[in-house]
Amino acid sequence: MSEEQAQQLMQQMQMLENHFGQLTQQQNSIISIIREANSALHSINETKTKDESDSLIPIGIINIGSGVAIEKDQSSAINWLESRLKELEVALQNVNSQRQQVADNIEMGKHQMQSFIQKSQQAQK
Predict the structure, then answer these.
(1) Nearest Cα residue to 91 out of 21, 16, 38, 33
(2) Which residue of 33, 62, 121, 122 sits 20 to 30 Å from the alpha carbon of 96, by its own alpha carbon?
(3) How far apart are CA 31 and CA 12, in angstroms?
(4) Rounded distance between C-alpha atoms, residue 45 and residue 64, angstroms
């Protein structure tokens, strides 16, 4: 490996580390949304046991716009939330898979760089 190739490898590793950071942020966002959806689902289920009066429950995970309310009955709201949770779980699995691939690539790059450094040090002796 030439010095130029080593510099290219370092640049690739920096890009991979940046990408890993972005994937970590995505993962944290998805986890936060999953928690919010679970909390909303719990809140709706709690209202089932109470009086059957109409109530507005802000669940905050429907991205429509500020000040907009959607009317749903309890069962359709629960179905929608459960469907959304399944989608989020799939998205989380995909992000975790991508993070693992990037982490593996970073580790491989580190090994290549260590090998290059060792060979360079041996050549200087």
Answers:
(1) 33
(2) 62
(3) 28
(4) 23
Q: Choose among 21, 13, 1, 12: nearest CA to 98.
A: 21
Domains and CATH numbers, the chain: 16-124 (1.10.287)
Alpha helices in the chain (DSSP H): 3-48, 74-124
Angstrom distance (rounded) from CA 11 to CA 24: 20
Length of the chain: 125
CA angle 77, 31, 57 (to 5 degrees): 30
What tens digit of pLDDT does each residue of 61-109 get?
Answer: 555 556 666 777 788 888 988 999 999 999 999 999 999 999 999 999 9
Tokens of 43: 């809140």
Distance of CA 52 to the CA centre of its chain: 37
Tell me how far apart the alpha carbons of residues 32 and 39 are, in angstroms, rounded to a whole number: 11
Q: Cα–Cα distance between 68 and 77 in angstroms, integer?
A: 16
